[in-house]
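Table S2 (text version). Query chain:
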Amino acid sequence: MISDSSRFVAKGVAHIDLPKVAEPVHVTFVLLPKFTMLAFSSAIEPLRIANQLTGQILFRWQTLSADGLPVACSNGVPVMVDGVVSGSQPEGIVLVCSGVEPEDQATVALGDWLRGLWRRGRTVGGLCTGAYALAKAGILKDRRFTLHWENIAGFAETFPDLHAARQVFCIDDRIVTCAGGVAAADLMLKIIHDHFGMALSQEVMNMCLLTQRRTEGDEQTTSLAARLGTRHEKLIEAVSFLEARIEEPFDLDACAAQLKLSRRQIERLFNRYLAVTPVRYMNDLRLQRGRALLAETDMSVTEVAIACGYASTSHFSKSFRTKYAISPYRFSHFGK
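Corresponding structure-token output:
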């Protein structure tokens, strides 16, 4: 029988003094099929390191699944769990670990279970796309929350009344969410800081070889200027204008009027700095969004075409096939 000390406190060289803690923080990870391993490991390892550095059980953790069986994450590696979700009433913090195809993995039963825990005073949350489960629990209305930027478009189509922030992580009234990936470590550093102070959270950060502490309000992705590889003010304004109107008919004249430039000047900017025409840039952007919606929602090809600003399904299908070498109909059912 493995003792609690052996399970939760690993041996290490680095050490930090901390007064004896009376009661550890309990953290439960609910693993959904195809969850993201990077988000899970980025969340659980800072807890393990905090225990190791202090030589105490500051955190206890357990893993649960819907049936109590191992769960394969998105890279196919199976992960053992400690128990089954149904009937369990964990203390402390409960985090849903999700990943690809989140709408299919987050069940109504899971949502009901989470809502019950939250109403009984637990802190509940989601890593990566775990916000889908919180949405089905009906507890995100008027709350600040986030999920991975890749899935925000699909989430918005599924839950049009809920608006995700593009932040690294969010904490709002016992609801904690993060964008996944290494953002899970940022969230855990915040939790460690809030429970046990700055000194420990800083040393955990050093042990994780993280050189920058990101805060709740930090953006998930690089700035538009960094993404485009230029600081040209007018080009950034033009791209921002077009990206904000992805569902609307393409209107370069309106963009030109907004920027007080001619159509030709905007076309030159796109050609010089991005090596594409504005039409091509917008079409690629719409197809990327269409691909995300087909992968992450149950929307029909026609619904996706409309949501991406295409006047006809046939035009969307032809463009999709040209770019991705597969029809949107086949892609939407691939692997299902």
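Notes on Table S2: The mean pLDDT is 91. The longest strand covers residues 25-31.
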